[in-house]
Write a structure and sequence with these properties.
- The structure is a single chain.
- By secondary structure, the chain is of the alpha/beta class.
- The strands form eight sheets. A seven-stranded parallel sheet has the order 15-16-14-17-18-13-19, sandwiched between helices. The chain has a six-stranded mixed sheet with strand order 5-2-1-4-3-6.
- The longest helix is centred in the last third of the chain and has 22 residues.
- The chain starts with a strand and ends in a 6-residue tail after the last strand.
């Protein structure tokens, strides 16, 4: 009689608990292994998280163990468990987020009709059968439920299956995709010329093919032998028949960079400041528990070279590394630098890769074939042994915060993983987050500085252009000749662009708002076109002539008349990158212009292609949103123009001013990096604002001092720890009532626990309606991370609203409150 063990399994469900299953054998699979298990009426993939010591009745058996080695190694499993606990997220969803998508590809249920089905069907059964018969081929149960909108279909499916009216089949999950290639390899050598003559005789093509394979080292891909060298399959078959070669299938890893050349690494000599920083970081490699480092370096100071030298020393010690960048597809130059220095030891992970490409990169890191993982936030979970270094470049960037469950902050998790691994963690930025800056001031992080640009260059001078004065001048010039571009481009900016174009230099123009016009308003009645599902105005896109919601992607044709009063007098108000592109093209007719925003970079390699054109000098003016402010280094860019610095500064969010300062400082740093020098022109209606003034002066420390004082009263991070609780429902009144009930529950818990957690709200969210759901929120604050965590876990575990279709989302350490 076989023994059975009980194991606890975390499933990728929004349920904060593990499930118990039985498994044959005395040695259950180790924690972190994937298993296929039954769950309700379907099959799911979950992860073993431990053994079950207590006796549990009515336990269902594991269907299959899917891993030979745990897909979540012990160190990674510990990190994910910490993440799930801290961010109050189900462990199964946290594991799913940390691992390649193909590893959690669940089974699918299909149903199809059977000819001659019995009578006596209910109305719901008839409706389901009729829908199936129209389609004839098997349909997913999930699709049927979504299309028919009949709620759960399983009672009908069971009844109809038992009576032979339909066929139900569960398709098990696919094995993770592995790509193979056919290779021709020599299995019998012919060193003797006489023997070779006897074997081939008059078979000249076979002789040539054999010699080509021989010259290639004795093996060659079959497709190359045919495609590049023109040998037919029959020639290869002849070689096989003579026992000279064998055609075998071998695994081929998908590498999205295999067709892209690796640049030669530049020969740089470290500056005194760089050498000092590298020495401190390398010394920390030999420490048992090194404290995190904050590398504060001005734009162009050579932070990347410091990272590279640190990684080189870590690899020499046999250790591995993770390098996080804000969004890999937006920083191709950064990736190219690492590949130039470390070649095939680098694996790249980012969202634009296919599932197969990501899976292959993950496997090569896990096997040790690749030693450095470079990627966006999820690359933090790369399964690297002997981790020695974690670098978080541009650590202030908002893209390190995950927007869905688990809502983790990759910068903070990097510090946690490095501490658990004994690795050196480096957070680098010219404009650090105030949280990291405060940690450095309080001694939690070690501060390293790169105060000067590499090569003795200086930061570019920044000139402010007061848009209020520009508008006054435009009004005075009414009726007289007005220069092209006026109203969007100021006279000083037009003059500066013309000057650069005349000299054959390049220009970057920033406007952090895409589209053509921010909103459409009727001049007669004042009506503004709003999204049907979100409480935001629709943005007009001239191409393809539609109004688009940038939150839920709702689209509708651009109106010719006001839908409220019928007037044709419509005003397209506000600026977007599409309109600026048109104005720039009309003003500078001979200039070659490239626009870089979400609308122009949907393709897999579109970022690389646009920036490649800029690097080759095929673009005179690069126009775009915030993506052009990150990590670009083009020596011929001698002018940066900010079309409107005020966008975003007055958003109802405590980080709005910090984001504005960071964006202005970062984009200003894109110029003046070569011998040609540089200049920055910033158009603003708020030239006296402290964030704008600090960006003009390249003075991070004065900005940090002022902003920290602003956040002291009322208290916001980094002075306190914060959690944002959002309650949403399609019913506005229901959302408000549940938010009120949740807030009352928290108040009662705070009194009972005698906790120093305090609450702000509840109130409607700044964007009150999103994706068709009304939203209310309240904030939880505490100077203690532990006590805030206790309040969050108590609320999520204890508050149970008695209402349908109400969602509660908890965002700990939120990046924004909109």
């Amino acid at each position: 009689m076989s023994s059975r063990s009980l194991i606890r399994v975390a499933l990728p469900l929004p349920i904060d608990r593990a499930f118990t299953y039985s498994i044959d054998g005395s040695a259950p699979p180790p924690p972190g292994s994937r298993v296929l298990v039954p769950f309700r009426r379907r099959e799911m993939i979950g992860w073993v998280i431990g053994s079950e010591d207590e006796t549990v009745a009515n336990v269902r058996p594991v269907l299959s163990v899917l891993d030979e080695l745990p897909s979540a190694p012990p160190d990674l499993l510990s990190l994910v468990e910490w993440m799930a606990d801290y961010y109050v997220a189900p462990l199964g969803l946290a594991l799913k987020a940390a691992l390649p998508a193909v590893l959690s590809d669940a089974s699918k249920d299909y149903i199809s009709p059977v000819v001659g089905s019995p009578s006596g069907r209910t109305q719901r059964e008839q409706q389901l059968l009729g829908w199936l018969e129209e389609r004839r081929s098997p349909q997913r149960v999930a699709t049927a439920r979504r299309v028919l909108q009949m709620g759960s279909l399983w009672p009908e499916i069971r009844s109809l299956t038992e009576r032979g009216a339909i066929r139900h089949e569960t398709v098990p999950p696919r094995d993770p995709p592995v790509r193979t290639q056919r290779v021709v390899e020599i299995v019998r050598a012919l060193p003797d010329l006489r023997e070779r003559e006897d074997v081939f005789g008059r078979a000249g093509k076979q002789r040539e093919a054999y010699q080509v394979i021989e010259a290639a080292g004795g093996r060659m891909e079959l497709k190359h032998l045919g495609g590049l060298h023109g040998f037919s399959r029959s020639v290869v078959a002849g070689l096989e028949g003579k026992g000279l070669v064998a055609v075998v299938d071998e695994e081929r890893f998908r590498d999205p960079f295999e067709d892209r050349s690796v640049p030669e690494p530049p020969n740089h000599t470290l500056t005194v400041d760089q050498d000092r920083c590298v020495a401190a970081l390398v010394a920390a490699l030999d420490e048992e528990s090194p404290a995190p480092f904050l590398l504060h370096g001005v734009t162009g100071s050579g932070k990347t070279l410091v990272y590279i030298e640190l990684l080189r020393k870590a690899l020499e010690r046999g250790r591995t590394a993770v390098v996080l960048v804000p969004e890999i597809s937006l920083t191709p130059q950064t990736v190219a630098r690492f590949r130039a220095h470390f070649g095939d030891r680098v694996a790249v992970l980012h969202s634009a890769l296919s599932d197969g490409e990501r899976y292959d990169a993950w496997r090569r890191l896990r096997s040790g074939d690749r030693r450095i993982a470079v990627g966006a936030r999820s690359a933090l979970f790369a399964p690297l042994p002997d981790l020695g270094v974690i670098v978080v470049d541009e650590e202030h960037d908002g893209s390190y915060k995950q927007s869905d469950v688990p809502r983790y902050q990759a910068r903070d998790l990097s510090v946690v993983r490095a501490a658990a691994s004994g690795a050196v963690c480096v957070l680098g930025s010219a404009t650090p987050s105030l949280e990291s800056w405060t940690n450095a001031e309080h001694g939690k992080f070690r501060l390293l500085s790169l105060p000067e640009r590499v090569g003795g260059g200086s930061l570019p001078p920044v000139q402010l252009i007061d848009l209020r004065e520009e508008r006054k001048s435009s009004q005075e010039e009414k009726g007289s000749h007005r220069p092209a571009g006026s109203g969007v481009l100021s006279s000083p900016l037009i003059e500066a662009i013309n000057e650069r174009l005349h000299r054959g230099e390049q220009i970057i123009l920033l406007l952090n708002r895409r589209g053509y016009s921010s909103f459409v308003q009727c001049r007669e009645c004042g009506d503004v076109r709003q999204c049907a599902h979100c409480s935001v105005s629709l943005t007009y896109h001239r191409v393809p002539g539609r109004l688009v919601c940038h939150h839920c992607r709702h689209e509708e044709p651009a109106p010719e008349r006001c839908p409220q009063c019928g007037s044709r007098d419509l005003s397209f108000r506000g600026l977007g990158t599409e309109q600026v592109e048109r104005v720039v093209a009309e003003t500078f007719g001979q200039a070659r212009i490239a626009r870089m925003d979400v609308d122009t970079t949907s393709g897999k390699w579109s970022h690389h292609e646009i920036l490649g054109r800029v690097e080759r000098g095929e673009v005179d003016i690069l126009l775009g949103t915030q993506m052009i402010a990150k990590g670009l280094d083009f020596p011929r860019v001698t002018l940066v123009g900010v079309i409107n610095a005020d966008i975003g500064i007055h958003l109802p969010d405590f980080r709005a001013t910090e984001r504005t300062f960071q964006l202005l400082s970062q984009v200003a740093g894109r110029t003046g990096r070569g011998t040609l020098g540089g200049r920055v022109l910033v158009q603003t209606s708020m030239p006296g604002h402290y964030a704008v003034r600090a960006a003009v002066d390249h003075d991070f420390e004065s900005f940090a001092e002022r902003e920290l004082a602003e956040r002291a009263r009322p208290r916001y991070p980094p002075h306190v720890r914060l959690a944002n609780v959002v309650v949403s429902s399609p019913d506005a009144e229901l959302a408000a009532n549940v938010a009120m009930g949740g807030a009352n529950w928290v108040r009662g818990w705070i009194r009972r626990a005698d906790s120093d957690v305090d609450m702000v709200g509840p109130a409607p969210s700044p964007i009150e309606k999103l994706h068709g759901r009304w939203r209310w929120h309240f904030l939880l604050r505490s100077p203690s991370a532990g006590r805030l965590g206790a309040a969050c876990r108590a609320f999520i575990g204890g508050f149970r609203p008695r209402a349908k279709d109400v969602r509660i989302a908890l965002d700990r350490d939120p990046n924004q409150l909109l």
